[in-house]
Amino acid sequence: MTVLKSIWAHAQGRYALIVLSAWVLIAFVSLLWTPHSLWATDGYHVWAAPSADHWLGTDGTGADVFSWLMAGSRTNLLIVVLTIGVSAVIGLLLIAAMVSSAAMLSGVTVVAVDALISIPTVLIALILAVPMGASIAVIVIACGLGYGLNLARVARPQALLAARSDYAEAARAAGVSPLRVLLSHIVPNALPTMSVQLSLSAGTAVLAESGLTYLGIGVPSGVPSWGHSLATSVKFINVYPLTVLWPGLIVTCVVVALNLFGDALREAADPVANPLLRQARLRQARLRRAESSQMQSKQSQPEPMQPKQVRP
């Protein structure tokens, strides 16, 4: 809650939270209701201008643009969530290998990441599209792999400092497992950097969906998405510019919101830059010290002696 309050305190953070909350809300509402059916077409009102019946007009088949954009919001949200999950898992695995105490494993992983990160995401998607065809899985795997490599490279310096710190070495000497050291000591220190990088990757995933769908290797035909709306209407931008304006405006607003959310999250999750978070952590530390002192005082108190029972 302290981090959210800090994000809301800035105008950029408020804009990001409002836009992202509206996106999630519309995505869930579209599961239950849209103004018109996605497959309802009206041949007499093709490329119609915005009106009371069609709020954002119609496309080349007479379908309602607003309904398709509503339904496309859940597809893009699904792609972003899956991409962030895949990239986070790949990034954590690579970070664990890059900060490993085994010199050979860490060295090979660093070289491999530096070599693979140069491969463009579009090229990975083209290679995957050969056996898989146009599908959401192509976008998720290609973007998740590319963003996971970038996440590992960006978060490696902080993770390496945490892995070589005294408390991490003390935990290893105490017999703590490498997985617990990673989750308890390394990941929390690299979490602010990872959170910002993942939020930036989410915005890039929205753009990647639009670009890959336009190339024909992204979201398949018939599945609503913002990239699909752009790809089907960009051919008529000179004649009917509004059909391109609406999905392009939505993609721009969402990408900007995700980038601003990442910047606000970086400042809010940093105790040095966020006084509210620093005060909250100090209060937690005081409470922990008070609890530990109470436990020590209870343990140091002698147990009361029970009177011996005299048998008659």
Calculate Rg over CA atoms: 26 Å
* Element pattern in H and E: HHHHHHHHHHH
Identify low-pLDDT runs.
Answer: none
How is the biggest beta sheet arranged?
none
Number of helices: 11
Give the integer mean of the pLDDT values.
86
Tell me the overall shape.
globular
Strand content: under 5%
In percent, how helical is the residue content? over 70%
The tally of strands reads 0
Distance between the termini: 66 Å
Structural class: mainly alpha
Structural description of this entry:
The protein is mostly helical. It has eleven helices and no strands. It is globular and about 85 Å long.
Which secondary structure elements does this structure contain, and how are they paired or packed?
Elements: H1 2-8, H2 11-30, H3 65-98, H4 103-116, H5 121-132, H6 136-163, H7 166-173, H8 178-215, H9 226-233, H10 242-268, H11 275-300
